[in-house]
Amino acid sequence: MKLADVLIVTTNSPEETHKLGITLSALTELGDIICLHGDLGAGKTALVKGVAEGLGINPTKVNSPTFTLIHEYTEGKIPVYHFDAYRLKSATEALEIGTEEYLYGDGISLIEWPEKMESLIPPEAYHVYIEKAGSTLRTFKITPPLENGHS
Ligand code: ADP
Ligand code: MG
Question: How many CB atoms sit inside 10 A of residue 60's CB?
Answer without folding.
Answer: 9
